[in-house]
Design goal:
Length: about 750
């Protein structure tokens, strides 16, 4: 029997439509076939993989070594390396290309020197450039990823466990981006922020940068003599060139710290136990206009933004009391043309720091499912803020275990009693690049039968450098629900190299699995997925590589009824110029046992729906003043109608001070029961006077919701880690029958840290 015949057997529904029946004997065919193919591919590569594994084991003798030199005193951070301090340190160079020519010497010389004193490690970096006038540097904002600029990056694996580290990135303007890396980059917390300083200047020969990282800002072992993992990366943006000191091979991402070099020479340094108290005060006013009647409310608040205490050099306790998140970024407006919930990322500082510790299963940036999603704490389902009375968080390392613990208590909200939220996470690194862990979550209100608990175990394993295995099992407890309360991914297997990526997985989510503190948009399913992609690099001067991929997703419910089948093929071209063009086609089958309303407007009745989606997208080179993402798609027979979608997402770097990020999505939907045109805009206008005076203006518009929102934020970073915010927000929303509700609010927030 061919795969396409699986839905030929049908179940009769009460309304006369038929449900595609998933034949029980073929239930795991997609997973088994995919597993077999990947196993064959993996087995064929084992001999060379084992040889490479021996050459790249964590203690391999050929690992590059960088030497740090101790000094008395401190260099002046001014982007000038002529001070005598820098002359004592040996130069680190010999950077190799990752792209465009793997293993070849970098086209421009990069030189790094490392010195340190009792409290701080310093990096002096000379980035020579034969065409210095063409260096690209436009971004000043804190925590911008700097993907459009020339950059220099440092990774520090302070525990030298070859899995975790800290990433520091800067550009010729001295802008700062930092992140925390776990599980070899499978999980990256880009919202991790700590105190470190940068000074950069452009010269006739290129650009120079000095970086100072206090030992108190990073976790490290309490040893008399330290040996860290370390690596450096330089992006020469106009050439679309990546030059890396140690981990230059394309089969590895730069974040995979198992391939980093070693840093030696550090002695008698300690990350002292430290207490930081960071209170805040806010003041402002809000005015609501409803049916022409204005109501004004004066706002004043204060509390403890964060109390941070280092129990050990690697274990940190955080406490917050009555936190305020008025300065947090606003959520982007999104379009939902499915029957499932949308994912909104966390944006609040207290929950963002060390957030990767609480990732479970897929983790990282996955929006597929999460056993814990911190937005469930202090935010209602409609994204209305709920006051948090207090919260405590413990994160770090203890005797080889990664630990994470959060407990937070929310106040009553709209007649519903507040709840206590608890999440506990433990992870253990095993072998050289693998990890296993367990997690428990609990939401409990003051009512005796109002609680929800989840618990699970997970593991990620890496063998032969590029073979990845993943598995997790989890269950939930909710009063009155006893059956089908578990989910699992018995196995995900993937082979990941620069040329070949192939994987297969099978995920089961029970009908009654309930993770109130997580994000699980779809329950009652058996989800099998197979993916295969090759990326050949032809000997064509103007083409860097091709992308040829295919995937198959096959989803049934617990009654073995086929609900979703997606067969996708994709072809892309990465040009040497940095531009990318992608063509895609997806054949889709959706079966609805129950109907729903599309965007709450047009009814979609039960039944089987087959559609064909054609996509075309362009991603211009990020080094240009105009880059971003542009996509056009046409889905024929979308819910027995048609859908045309246009996504315009240009990023415009107007100057070193002004940039615009524009998101515009147009959906023209025409169904048998009705039609609509949806237009959603999210526009960010960033004007940064200096690296410390930053402004962002966000404009949002949704025509179907009759919503217009403007948010202006001024951020003065008067010293690293301490801020003054001025935030103005105006929201205009139509209520029907010509009634308009307008809400205006201005807030001033001030934070100041006290270190002991």
């Amino acid at each position: 029997m061919k795969f396409q015949q699986h839905d030929s057997t049908a179940a009769q529904l009460h309304d006369g439509t038929t449900a595609p029946r998933h034949h029980s004997s073929l239930r795991y065919v997609p997973s088994v076939v995919a597993f077999f193919l990947v196993a064959v591919i993996s087995w064929s590569m084992i001999p060379s993989a084992m040889a490479q594994g021996r050459r790249n084991r964590p203690d391999r003798p050929d690992r590059k070594v960088a030497q740090a030199v101790r000094i008395e005193g401190s260099p002046v951070l001014d982007g000038d390396l002529s001070e005598e301090f820098w002359q004592r340190a040996p130069a680190i160079s010999e950077f190799l290309q990752r792209d465009p020519q793997e293993g070849e010497p970098a086209t421009e010389r990069t030189e790094v020197k490392i010195i340190y004193n009792d409290t701080t490690i310093f990096f002096g970096v000379l980035c020579e450039d034969s065409q210095a006038e063409k260096i690209i540097a436009n971004e000043r904002a804190r925590d911008d990823q700097l993907q459009s600029d020339d950059t220099f990056e440092i990774i520090l694996d302070t525990f030298r466990n070859r899995q975790d580290g800290f990433l520091f990135r800067t550009n010729p303007l001295g802008a700062k981006f930092d992140s925390q890396i776990t599980d070899e980059g499978r999980r990256e917390n880009r919202n991790w922020d700590e105190r470190w300083n940068v000074a950069a200047q452009r010269t006739e020969a290129g650009w120079v940068v000095e970086i100072a990282i206090p030992f108190q800002s990073i976790r490290m072992p309490n040893n008399e003599e330290q040996r860290w993992g370390i690596d450096f990366k330089r992006n020469i943006r106009r050439k679309n060139e990546e030059a890396i000191w140690s981990n230059y091979r394309r089969n590895f991402d730069f974040l995979q710290v198992s391939q980093a070099g070693d840093l030696v020479g550090l002695r008698d340094i300690f990350s002292e136990h430290r207490l930081r108290i960071k209170p805040y005060v806010t003041g402002g006013a809000s005015r609501v206009f409803d049916r022409g009647v204005a109501e004004t409310d004066h706002l004043f608040n204060g509390g403890l933004e964060d109390l941070k205490y280092h129990l050990t050099p690697s274990l940190t306790l955080d406490l917050t009391i009555n936190p305020d998140f008025a300065q947090a970024d606003v959520d982007d407006q999104q379009v939902n043309l499915t029957r499932f919930s949308l994912f909104f990322p966390e944006r609040r500082e207290f929950f963002l720091e060390n957030a990767s510790m609480f990732d479970f299963g897929p983790g990282g940036f996955s929006r597929e499912l999460r056993l814990f999603h911190s937005r469930t704490i202090g935010l209602s389902e409609s994204r209305e803020p709920i006051d948090i009375i207090a919260g405590v968080k413990l994160t770090g390392q203890l005797k080889g275990l990664g630990l994470g613990f959060i407990n937070a208590q929310t106040d009553d909200f709209e007649g519903t009693p507040g709840s206590n939220f608890t999440v506990a996470r433990v992870r253990k690194k095993i072998l050289s690049r693998s990890v296993v862990g367990a997690m428990l979550t609990n939401r409990q209100s003051s009512l005796p039968d109002d609680y929800n608990r989840t618990f699970g175990v997970d593991g990620n394993f890496v063998f032969f450098e590029n073979l990845h295995l993943e598995s997790f099992f989890a269950g939930s407890q909710t009063p009155g629900i006893e059956e089908n309360t578990w989910m699992a991914r018995p196995l995900k297997i993937a082979w990941e190299t620069d040329f070949l990526s192939a994987g297969a997985e099978h995920t089961i989510v029970g009908r009654n699995f309930n993770a109130e503190m997580g994000f699980v948009p779809r329950t009652d399913m058996n989800n099998s997925l197979f993916e295969f992609e090759i990326n050949p690099r032809p000997q064509i001067e103007w083409i860097r590589k091709f992308e040829l991929g295919t995937s198959l997703r096959y989803i049934t419910n617990q009654d073995e009824v086929l609900e979703t089948r997606e067969q996708e093929v994709q072809f892309g071209v990465d040009f040497e110029s940095g531009d990318v063009v992608v063509f895609g086609y997806t054949k889709i089958l959706e079966f609805l046992e129950e109907g729903f309303r599309l965007r709450g407007r047009i009814p979609v009745p039960p039944g089987s729906y087959r559609s064909h989606n054609f996509q075309f997208q362009v991603r211009p080179f990020r080094g240009r003043r105009v880059s971003g993402f542009f996509q056009f798609s046409r889905e024929v027979d979308f819910w027995d109608g048609d859908r045309t979608t246009l996504n315009l997402n240009p990023s415009i770097k107007w100057s070193q001070n002004l940039s615009l990020d524009i998101g515009y999505r147009l959906d023209d939907v025409r169904l048998p029961a009705g039609e609509f045109t949806s237009s959603v805009s999210n526009i960010d206008i960033n004007y940064n006077f200096t690296n410390s005076w930053l402004t962002t203006t966000t404009l949002q518009y949704d025509n179907l919701s009759d919503l217009f929102n403007i948010n202006f934020r001024l951020n003065w970073i008067y010293r690293p880690g301490d801020d003054l915010f001025v935030v103005f927000t105006q929201t205009r929303r139509g209520q029907g029958d010509g009634i308009v509700l307008t809400d205006r609010q201005i807030i001033v927030k001030f934070t100041h840290s006290f270190d002991f």
